[in-house]
Structure formats: structure tokens, C-alpha cells
């Protein structure tokens, strides 16, 4: 039986990449998740104790996380938990939860982000098969078409990430939201 958890929180460290040029790069970062709730009596927000996790990403996911996630970013992580025990030089011991990530992304509750497909050569993605535990599940998304619709054409690879994506002038906006948010933009 394989358990999967989803954790929302903030990246507590800058992602660190190990072996970026190998067939199986690994990126790790710390994830802090602090529960918050509103008091029914006072209406004030209260924060609970922060839970800390080490997130480990493998293969293509490792490189994408290293390029996309920064210290302090709100993120959502889906993966398999594993409890790791440790003992330091002072003979103190403890345990931590490491999440072997299957998916990592920005938490869009707190802001926006722009997806950019990355092509990193012809090497096969080893992120699933190389993760601890030898997962051999197939990525359904990899089987779907990667061609964007005309209204969602990404900027050229040479464009900076902050370049807004625009609907080509010859293509009318297909929804009221697109009409409102693409008004006055022209194709690059």
C-alpha cells in the first residue's frame, strides 16, 4: 500500500540541487505548513504550530522545482511520506518527515504564476522510476497532447518569464475573462 499526502505551506529554504547534470538530479527544500483558523467567538485568526517537512524531488521534477520555487513561495506538494530518524554528535535523536514529491506547484490562492513547458533534451524522465521505492506508475499527463490552444500560446523560450502571454490579434477572445484581460495587448 502506498500512501500519498498533500501539504500546503511555504518554502522555508531555497531549493538545493544535487547532481544537476546527471541522469537523476535531486532537489530538496524545507516546507513549513502552519495551520490557521478563525475563532468562532472573536473572529480573530489564530496560528497553530508549524510542521516542517523535507521535500525531495527527482529527475525532471527536480530541475523544474529548482528553476521555479524560491524561499518564501507558497507551494502545494503531493507525494509519499517517509519518516526518517536521525542522531547528532551530541547523541540527541529525532525524526522528520520527508516527502518524496510527485508534484510541486505554486499555491494559486496567494498569487498567480505562468506555466512554461521546458524541453531538456531527449533523455527520458526518470523522476518516477528513480524515486526511492521504485515507483513505476505512468504519468497520465505525459500521454496527453502537449500542443497549447491558440489562446494559451506560451512566449518564446527567449522571452523572460514575466512577459505576459497574449492572445494573437487575429484570434478573438473566447471568454469574457480573456476579453477583459487581453484588451489592448498585441501579439509579440
**Helical run tally:** 3
Overall residue-averaged pLDDT value: 76
Q: Using the coordinates above, name the CATH class of the largest domain.
A: Mainly Beta
For the secondary structure, the number of strands is 8
CATH homologous superfamily title of the largest domain: Nucleic acid-binding proteins
Largest sheet: 5 strands, mixed, barrel
How far apart the termini lie comes to: 50 Å
Shape, please? globular
Strand-residue proportion: 25-35%
Task: Fill in the CATH topology of the largest domain.
Answer: OB fold (Dihydrolipoamide Acetyltransferase, E2P)
Output the structural class. Answer: mainly beta
What is the domain total for the residues? 2
Order of helices and strands: EEEEEEHEEHH
Oligomer: single chain
**Low-confidence parts, pLDDT < 50 over ≥5 residues?**
122-130, 133-183
CATH architecture of the largest domain: Beta Barrel
Walk across the major sheet and give the strand order: 1-3-6-8-7
User: What's the helical proportion of residues?
Assistant: 10-25%
Gyration radius, rounded: 20 Å
Organism: Nesterenkonia sphaerica
Keywords: DNA-binding
Protein name: Single-stranded DNA-binding protein
Biased composition (Low complexity): 159-176
How would you portray this structure in words?
It is a single chain. By secondary structure, the chain is mainly beta. It folds into two domains: 5-146, OB fold (Dihydrolipoamide Acetyltransferase, E2P) (Beta Barrel), CATH 2.40.50.140; 150-188, no CATH class. The chain is built from three helices and eight strands. The chain is globular, with a radius of gyration of 20 Å.
